[in-house]
Specification:
This protein is mainly alpha-helical. The protein is 56% helix and 7% strand. The mean pLDDT is 86.
């Protein structure tokens, strides 16, 4: 299936989740898992839909129940007497794992009185003599709503991860080999700084270090080593008294100043001051190409000195 069509299907399912149509969302996700050949997703959805029971083909004997299906309640004997009243060491034994499928959980959540599950424990647990008196487990419907919300959140998380991976794949028009060939044709500084990072898929460092080196080259060529960022670019490419003059046309000179100023404010600074995850190779190449263009402009700039009293 075309990635864009899969992304569209995912967004459709996400909309169902926001409309509280969990059953329909899970059923469509199961169909999606077949289309994208995701066995892990298929199994998880199959368990949530049909339950963590031995009759479910997705269930394995050694299956560990998900943490979010653990609920708090009260175990009682046949006379509805809480076991904790006469078995002191069972005071902390007040939880149970809901094994039912989502449809049954939805039915639980809509009840208006305490829910009672008869004979809740499996045979291997009931081998404990102290637990053989357990006949029922009591819990409130509101607790089940919390379980259903977590299942919904889990579904949204899984779908969002798949969508993110598909977006990355569909947006990356270049292979690594093609990208390295392109960088080899850029300004020598870009090639020297970025190429090793690209081979490691470290796109953030490729961009950040390239722009840091560009700023350093402006400092070195202009002699304005004590300045940085937008202040450096204002002084170096000043319209009226440029230290680095690209043209006599003041409008063009201002444009050059704004390009360099924008590069440090919008690209270098954000990447330097916080972690930004660059995961798209095509976008990374665009920013490296922009840096390459700026560096070629810098090479062409004339260094201008002014009299001390100017």
């Amino acid at each position: 299936m075309n990635p864009s069509k899969i992304i569209s299907k995912i967004e459709e399912i996400i909309d169902l989740c926001t409309d509280n149509s969990l059953i329909a969302a899970l059923q469509k996700t199961l169909t999606l898992s077949y289309a994208i050949d995701d066995e892990e997703l298929e199994r998880w959805v199959g368990l949530e839909l049909s339950g963590y029971t031995k009759t479910n083909p997705y269930f394995e004997h050694s299956e560990k129940f998900p943490y979010y299906r653990k609920i708090i309640g009260i175990y009682t004997d046949a006379n509805n007497r809480p076991l904790s009243e006469y078995i002191p060491d069972l005071k902390e034994f007040n939880f149970f794992y809901l094994k039912q499928g989502v449809l049954e959980l939805l039915a639980f959540s809509q009840r208006n009185k305490t829910i009672v599950i008869p004979h809740p424990l499996t045979e291997d647990v009931k081998d404990d003599m102290k637990l053989q008196m357990i006949e029922k487990f009591h819990f409130e419907p509101a607790i089940v709503l919390g379980v259903l919300q977590i299942i919904t959140n889990q579904l949204l998380r899984k779908l969002s991860l798949i969508r993110k991976q598909l977006l990355m794949t569909s947006q990356d028009a270049f292979s690594l080999k093609e990208a390295l060939t392109m960088v080899n044709g850029m300004h020598p500084v870009v090639k020297t700084v970025a190429i090793n990072y690209l081979e490691q898929n470290n796109y953030r460092s490729a961009i950040l270090d390239t722009y840091i080196e560009m700023v350093n080259m402006v400092k070195n060529k202009s002699g304005l080593s004590n300045d940085d960022g937008s202040t450096l670019m204002d002084k170096a490419f000043s319209v009226n008294k440029p230290v680095l003059k690209y043209t006599d046309d003041k409008n063009k000179q201002q444009g050059i100043m704004l390009l360099f100023k924008g590069a440090v404010m919008a690209i270098r600074n954000p990447n330097a001051h916080k972690i930004i995850r660059w995961e798209n190779l095509s976008r990374t190449l665009e920013w490296l190409s922009f840096a390459s263009g700026l560096l070629h402009i810098l090479d062409e700039c004339e260094v201008v000195s002014y009299p001390a009293d100017a």
